[in-house]
Here is the input.
Amino acid sequence: GENVEQHPSTLSVQEGDSAVIKCTYSDSASNYFPWYKQELGKGPQLIIDIRSNVGEKKDQRIAVTLNKTAKHFSLHITETQPEDSAVYFCAASRVSKIIFGSGTRLSIRP
Amino acid sequence: ETGVTQTPRHLVMGMTNKKSLKCEQHLGHNAMYWYKQSAKKPLELMFVYSLEERVENNSVPSRFSPECPNSSHLFLHLHTLQPEDSALYLCASSLDTGEEQYFGPGTRLTVT
Here is the structure.
């Protein structure tokens, strides 16, 4: 079946450094790629998304890149801060179908 | 606050019990979703409703029965569950399918 692979599963970075999380997907019909952040005791919250007609999108310290040919997309967080510590999920979606990656636990070291 | 509320937040039930999870969205969205989140597994989409009609049912056992009486409310009826059904059950809504989803805080379910 269709799947989304997400790496790494855990990531620890020094405060102020950058963090990169990568995902690959198998369903070539996917056209919407959201990234969610989940903090302890809360539901996932969208932080950025990208559609298949765009290669890159940026929102302040967060950016997402998409390579449709290779079926890769990545999340980039620059100038990391303690409040960035959370679990991050990527997803690939088309219409009513959405498949999530297994998540990356990001820890920011002071 | 995301505009999506879920009750109860925690539920402990025996395998022979019947219970229901409730989700309500105050965002005027047309699509609603149920997800299962287990430890060390990806979020699993269970059901999708669009304009109160079920449009996705991802091979979910019949002991889980969804109900969408209107576009603001979604229920998940539970009966004769198994211990492996213990998980966090998340509800989400979006303006339409394929759009940004807003998640509720989830119901932590424990089956004993």
Q: What stands out?
A: Chain B is about 0% helix and 55% strand. Chain B touches chain A at residues 2, 4, 31, 40-45, 48, 50, 55-56, 90, 92, 97-106 (CB under 8 Å).
